[in-house]
Amino acid sequence: MINYKLFIEDNFWLRDKDGNLSHFILNDVQAGYDRTLRHDYPDGQGIRENDLKGRQFGMSTYITALFTVDFVLSALGLIPSTNSDIYSHKDKETQAHFTRVNTFVDSWLITDQGGDYKNPEHHKELPRLRKHFLKNDQHGQLLAMNGAKIQTATAGAKVSGRGDTKQNILWSEAAFYPNTPILSAENLITGAEEQVPTGRGKIFRETTGNLAADYFAREYKMGKDGLSDFHSRFFAWYSHAEYTMPAPATWDVPDYYLVLLSKNVATINQCYWHFVKTRQLTDKKRLREYPTYDTEAFLYGGNPFFDADALLRYTNMVKKPMKTAMFASAL
């Protein structure tokens, strides 16, 4: 399998949360996910992932970087040619994804020539380098000389279709795609995914939670129950070590956090950060966007008839049967 982490950290730059250019060093969530993928898919093929996560983990940035590594290596003829699609739910986010792809490609081009991406003087070489490397360099799509391709688009009626062959697809914020009688997320996603051959390539559906009855929620549950070829993974807010804030000595820790503390999955400073972020556990939208349990990510979306807190409490009490069995009788 390609060592994606090594390639990314050696060659790619990005803008951090403060807007500063820096080497792309995987954060704790990204690095942990990279290890998981290497373990679960040793040959890097047939990746099928439903990723339910909190805000600002950098999951789509990491996956976009994976696809860009594939694009670069296939453009160089080091791996078979790849065709990658990156979808988002808003035009603004689609543009952000494409800007990120270009930053990765540009930083690799300069680094590969022995330059320093942070040096503005070295950027003057980019038009020449891109012209030599790319056959088609247009808004939303990069096409290499040998046909390798990477593109971004907004999930909607004009998707890549069903007739092409793809190797990689990312559905970013998949829980927020259109669901209307004319255009449904289910038809949109399943139709496009048929372009990726079974057992090959990479398909990621990553998102924060939305509604408990939408397409992604159903797919996530199927993967969680082992009824799908997709692995369903949940990344709770406390997975990200950056989410921390010193807790006052006088803070009366709510019962909500006692299980997390007893299991040592979160520190008291992390819990205090979450307490402040969710406005003392009262902001349902923020609880959905920074969920402690996967059920929170869905039950706090929309306007359920029953009280969301009660639904969450009883849902979390449900236990799977210890054993299952089938009985047959002769009539």
The largest sheet, given as strand count, sense and whether it forms a barrel, is:
8 strands, mixed
Strand fraction: 15-25%
Helix content: 25-40%
What is the molecular shape? globular
Give start-end ranges of low-pLDDT stretches: 303-312
CATH architecture of the largest domain, by name, is 3-Layer(aba) Sandwich
Q: List how many beta strands DSSP finds.
A: 10
CATH C-level of the largest domain: Alpha Beta
Q: Going across the biggest sheet, name each strand in turn.
A: 5-6-7-4-8-9-3-10
* Average pLDDT number: 89
Distance between the termini: 54 Å
Class inferred from helices and paired strands: alpha/beta
Number of helices: 13
What Rg, in angstroms, do the CA atoms define?
22 Å
List the helices and strands and how they pair.
Elements: H1 4-11, E1 13-15, E2 21-23, H2 28-40, E3 47-53, H3 59-75, E4 83-88, H4 91-112, H5 120-123, H6 126-133, E5 134-138, E6 141-144, E7 149-154, E8 168-172, H7 185-193, E9 202-207, H8 215-224, E10 231-235, H9 258-262, H10 268-277, H11 284-289, H12 294-299, H13 308-317
Parallel strand pairs: 3-9, 3-10, 4-7, 4-8, 8-9
Antiparallel strand pairs: 1-2, 5-6, 6-7
Helix pairs in contact: 3-4
In brief:
By secondary structure, the chain is α/β, with parallel strands linked by helices. 39% of the residues lie in helices and 15% in strands.
